[in-house]
Specification:
By secondary structure, this protein is an alpha/beta fold. 37% of the residues lie in helices and 23% in strands. The strands form two sheets. Strands 1, 2, 3, 4, 5 and 6 form a six-stranded mixed β-sheet that branches. A two-stranded antiparallel sheet has the order 7-8. Strand 5, helix 3 and strand 6 form a beta-alpha-beta unit. Helix 1 packs across helix 5. It is globular.
C-alpha cells in the first residue's frame, strides 16, 4: 500500500505556529506518513493529499488571513479529505488554559474538522512591531514560551492513529 500523504498547512506570523506544525509533521513522519509543512501560500493544490492538518496563529482573536484565504480557496477539496485543525495563541495563558476553540472562525467550523485543538503559544516582545508590542502590553499578554510540546506531539500521534484506523492500516 502506498504511503499516505499528510499536508500540514500553517499560517504563522513570527514562527511559533510553524514550529508547532513542524513538531506535528515530525510525529506523523515517525508514524510512517509522508508529511510536509507548508505555508498556505505555498500550497498549489490538494491532489494526491490524503489528509490535511491546518493550523494558524491567533491574533486579535482570529486566525491569520492566509489561513482564512486557504480555507476559501480549498473549501470543497478540504471537505473530501480527513481534516484536523489547531490554533496557537496566548489568550487565557495566565489562567492556565487557552480559550474558545471556535476562534478558528466560522469558515473552518463549517468544514467540521475531525478535531480542533488550541495550543498555548510563545510571545517574544523583541520579535514584535511597535504596534504589536503596544497591543500585547495593553492586553497584559505574558511574554514567554508556553508551548506544551508533549501535548502537541501526543495530539499529532493521535492523528496518525486515527488515519491508520481510517484506512485499515495496522498500527
Amino acid at each position: 500500500m502506498a504511503v499516505m500523504k499528510v499536508l500540514v498547512v500553517v499560517a504563522s506570523k513570527h514562527g511559533t505556529a510553524t514550529e508547532v506544525g513542524a513538531a506535528i509533521r515530525e510525529e506523523l513522519a515517525g508514524e510512517g506518513f509522508e508529511a510536509e509543512v507548508l505555508a498556505p501560500g505555498e500550497v498549489d493544490g490538494l491532489d494526491g493529499v490524503d489528509a490535511v492538518v491546518l493550523g494558524s496563529a491567533v491574533y486579535m482573536a482570529q486566525w491569520l488571513e492566509p489561513a482564512r484565504n486557504f480555507i476559501s480557496t480549498y473549501r470543497s477539496a478540504l471537505r473530501e479529505v480527513p481534516l484536523w485543525a489547531f490554533s496557537v495563541g496566548l489568550s487565557g495563558v495566565p489562567m492556565g488554559h487557552v480559550q474558545d476553540p471556535r476562534r478558528m472562525g466560522e469558515a473552518l467550523v463549517a468544514l467540521n474538522p475531525i478535531d480542533h485543538q488550541t495550543f498555548k503559544g510563545r510571545l517574544d516582545f523583541s520579535q514584535l512591531s511597535l504596534r504589536e508590542r503596544s497591543v500585547a502590553r495593553l492586553g497584559n499578554a505574558p511574554e514567554g514560551d508556553y508551548r506544551e510540546w508533549d501535548k502537541i506531539r501526543e495530539w499529532a500521534r493521535g492523528i496518525g492513529r486515527d488515519l491508520k484506523e481510517h484506512v485499515g492500516l495496522e498500527g
